[in-house]
Every structure is written in C-alpha cells, then in structure tokens.
Amino acid sequence: MDVTSSRALPGHRPGPRPSGDRPPRLPADRVPRHVAIIMDGNGRWATDRGLPRTDGHEAGARSGWEVVHGAIEAGVTHLSLYAFSTENWGRPQVEVRHIFSALARRVLAAARQRELEEMGVRVRWAGRRSRVPGYVADALGRLEDRTRNNTVLTLTVCVDYGGRSEITEAAAALAKDVYHGRVAAESIDEQCFARYLSVPELPDVDLLIRTAGELRVSNFFPWQATYAELVFLDTLWPDIDRRDLWRAVEIYAARTRTHGRLPGASA
Length: 267
Ligand code: IPE
Ligand code: IPE
Ligand code: MG
Hints:
Shape: globular
Helix content: 25-40%
CATH topology of the domain at 31-161 and 203-254: Undecaprenyl pyrophosphate synthetase
CATH superfamily of the domain at 31-161 and 203-254: Decaprenyl diphosphate synthase-like
CATH architecture of the domain at 31-161 and 203-254: 3-Layer(aba) Sandwich
Bound molecules: 3-methylbut-3-enyl trihydrogen diphosphate, magnesium ion
Distance between the termini: 42 Å
C-alpha cells in the first residue's frame, strides 16, 4: 500500500505498477465489457487511521485513477464509478461539500482532464444535473464535451446518481413524448425506454464490484446491472489498486453466465 495519509497522496497519475504486475491474460470474450464499481469504505479507512472522514475521500481518488488505468490495461471498454448517491445528501453538509471539492481537485482539475484526454478516456456523467454545486456540474459537462470523441474507455462518473430517480426521470420524459405524440405508446419496449436513461448508450453491466465488505447495491444501476455478475471485496476503497480490479476480472472470467438459458447454449 503506497498511501498512508491523504497528505502523502501523489499528485501524478499512476503509471505501470513498479512491481511489474500485469493484467490477466484472458480470451477477449472473457473480459467484462462494462465494469461498475460501488466505491465504499472511504470513511472507515480514515477512521481506522484516526483521520477525519474527509481524508478518506481524498485518498479514495487515487484508487479511482488506479482502476481507470487497470481497466484500460485489462481491455475493459466501459467503467462506471459510483461517486455520490442521491442518498448521500443525507450526510453532514461539511462532508458533502468535501466530497465535491475532492472530486473537483483530484479528478476535474485541468491537469487531470488532460490526462484523461491523453489516455483516450471518454467521460460521461450519470445522475441528476440540477443539484450538484455549479462548479462541479460545469466541469463535468465540459469534460464530457471535451472527451466526446475518445474511444479507449468510457468512464461514467455517477454523481447525484440514484437508480430509482433515473428510472422515474426516464419514465416522466417518455410520458411527455407520448403525450406530445413523439412516441407511440404501443411502440415502447426495453430499447425505447433505455434511450431515456442518464447515459442511454451504456451497455449492460457485466461485472459489478462493491468494496468494503458490504453486501448491498445501494440504489446503483437497477436497470443496467440486472444481469451483472457480483463481486464483493472486503478491501476498503482507498486501499484498492488495479490488481484488485484484475482479480475481480479473473473471478468474473471463471463464472458461467447462462442468462436464464442452460450452460453451453448460445445466445
Ligand atoms: C464511499 O465511502 C464514498 C461515498 C459514499 C461518497 P463511505 O464514505 O461510504 O465510507 P464508509 O462506508 O463510511 O466507510
Ligand atoms: C453507496 O455507498 C454510494 C456510493 C458509493 C457513492 P454508501 O456508503 O453511501 O451506501 P450505504 O449507506 O452503505 O448503503
Ligand atoms: Mg459507505
């Protein structure tokens, strides 16, 4: 572990692992296309060290960069990170403010944006746009614009995201289109509905990871992750690095996915 406190956080992007660890060698069809992560355990990580919870959120940003690199190296094309939920507004204001400022400084700052560009990352924002602080909303919106032509990895940052809110907003927008005659009610199917979600083009989640030992999905991606393989890790988020992602990918690769059919049947 190379982070002992938030003060020691490196300001650079993580390069290849000095240990020479490599991503798993897997046939392409065993690599999950879309990995989504519930990044949990920042508060406990800080409390365990006698630090304020806010330091845990600072330290957690490093793990975010790690998994972005790890995903690219492993051949994952879509990575979604649950950064702030619709329920997280219920935390003390000072913590909420700090989560947004850590996001702005450690992910959305100009230098960080350039790194994402260089890596070929396309950033998308899933979540409600009206409630997050303006400086965060503006930076996220600009980053989406700036990276729109990148194709190596689509990184969906879930900020003020809640699955029920996403589905309710989609239903309301669809109802409006039906009312105005833009969509025929009888033509509504799953594909049509999905076009109204926060990031319509997101493929289904193949692998859903939650850290910090909690066995919940906490209102994350109810539409997109209906058939995801679930991997729960005990490690607290700030202690996660790309090797943990790779281990989860290996666990995923060893699973048999039948999607309701029988093993061996083709899709
Ligand atoms: C996850 O870590 C980060 C957010 C929810 C923003 P927590 O802050 O939930 O950490 P714990 O679960 O209290 O340890
Ligand atoms: C889920 O973690 C939300 C995010 C990771 C952003 P929480 O720590 O907020 O969820 P609960 O309280 O354990 O369900
Ligand atoms: Mg938590």
